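Lay summary

Proteins are chains of building blocks that fold into shapes. Our project writes down both the chain and a compact code for its shape. Here are two examples, one after the other.
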Amino acid sequence: MKKINSRYSLKSVIASSLVLGAVLATPVASATTLRIASQHAPDQYASQVLRQIKADLEGAGVDLKIKLYPAGQLGSGEQLIGEAVRGSIDIVHSFVYSHKDPVLEINSLPYLVSNYDEMEKVFSPGSNFYGIFDQRMDKMGLKLLGVTAEGFIGVMSSSMPENYTTTGPKGQNIRVWSAQSAKLATKDMGYNTTTIDWGDAFPAIQQGVVDGMIGATPEAAYTTFKEAIENYIPYNAFVENYAYYASKKTWEKKLNEEQRRVITEVFAKAAAGFVDWSRENDAANLKKLEEFGVKILPLTDAERSAIATEIRAKTWPKLEDRLGKDILEKVKADL
């Protein structure tokens, strides 16, 4: 039998143990955790999409872990912008307010689009609108990942308006929200206006303080206001729109190139799906309103287009001081 040198055997064992210990002690790279905040209630379509986004990102094999915070848990839309700029929230899905840059109010332009084909074109990468929105958010420290169109906004009322197919006088005073663009456009559409908060709009209509309101999609009209109204006019004057955006601090310092690529693709796909959903959801809720007893006052494509053309010609110039004539001209070129 061959004799074993115990001294060298012991050295080998010790060396092997040290190597194994070093391997076991090496930390395994942990997944990058992203906090995503939104304003939508958990049962809304946008929240369903976010849950799919979470599944897609975590299943992409690029070491991402997602924590979702829906329903304004981490703050209002204005607060979320500030938190994302600071990097304390990684990604947001919310309305983009213009309190830090007035040009961002282009997302609230009356008749920015007036039909679903225009909606798809203008809210997609490659349009002038999207490029301007992207650039202005970048200057704030935010990375735009997509714009989500969540339905057209019309006018609802508790009585029959006059001249509803044109911009002629309507003989009605309706609720409008606080944005200057909304006030100017609604007046130019032929309505008298009163500024009332969303939460006070239902009793204001029901008690006759105002004759109706502008500011709700067919879905919101059905779920919140159907008991207080008799008519709904699908003017498509504004779009209920939100945006996916990331903190640039997260984008540049927290994520690697492969993670950025996956996030870009996943959010772009999600945003693109909203136009078809809006088309179907608007139609479905107009039908629900009608079945409930609310009369849908129809507009032909030609009538709606004529109103849109007149508002762009009459209302948009009044917004030049705030938004800039060159900005408005570029956005108008998309149409």
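And here is the second example, written the same way.
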Amino acid sequence: MSTITSPGVKAGPSLTARLLASQRFSNLTIFGLLVAIIVFFTVVTPSGTFFSNYNLTSIALAGSQLLILSAGVTFLLIAAGLDLSVGAVVVFSSVLAAKLMLGLTSGLAGTAQGGAELWLPILAGVGAGVVTGAAWGLVNGMLVVKSKIPSFIVTLATSTIILGLAQVWTGGMNVSGVPQALTDAFGMGTLLGVPWPVVTAAAVTGLLWVVLARTRFGLRTYAIGANPEAARRAGINVDRHLLAIYCMVGLLAGLVGMIDISRFSTASVSGYANIALQSITAVIIGGTSLWGGRGKMSGTVVGAFIPATLTSGFVIMNLQPFWQNVAVGCVLIFAVFVDQYRRRAMNVT
């Protein structure tokens, strides 16, 4: 028996549209994709190579820094913002921290690695690096909020400026000689067998997950991304909130820079050219809308580990790891297509 629709009554969204609009369905889809990738490489690679404790730990370690940045970028995209300068902030913060450590420890060559005389300069360098990252984030936020210039343009410009300053400062050369004690204790250290960078990434992401899902700060982030003018009328200080998010993203970039120098004992000037786009890609693949107002941290966690998983699998299969870029690009196009279809189907636009 056919269904009769009364004239003038608009039909509701189809089952497909409602399914695509479901955040839970989006999260399950991206999680299923990661599981499928893991199963595929487990089957096609020699037994005990891909799905092993060593390789899974390596994947977690490789994805930890991207995960920290992506967790911050999740807030920014939900609030309808963008930051293309995080890679440059990582470089500048790591350079500053490395140079400060080298300067303060230059006269401590004979100091024992565990001595307080050595660790005070190390902690000073780490603190300065993180604070510097937060300061650059604040600069980005001030420029976006006060100038009303699109965040894409502002952060593209500041990315060039920040990276250029780092290159001028170092002469385009990496800064090596970071105290080995930092690498031994943190970069290569473990907690119950889990590398400290992975523990740090899990702690930071877990904290931001709770903030986004369970606090007023998270609720206001969604409100600003969905409709900033309505958020202002509801009493939310939109400008101050955006400043806080940009500052947080900068702080996380500074933290990633500290993790990097602890792992490799070197501040790389050219190692993070693409991490801004990689973090945005991970967040979008995880189901966060590029147009704001929608997203969850659970999807970001999965999206951040897909590139590292693909790279590991391709290396074990003796394929060029650059195929990871091709695969991630295809997934990104599909994710944006689904998001656009969802917006049209649910009459969000």
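What can we say about the second shape? The longest strand covers residues 175-176.
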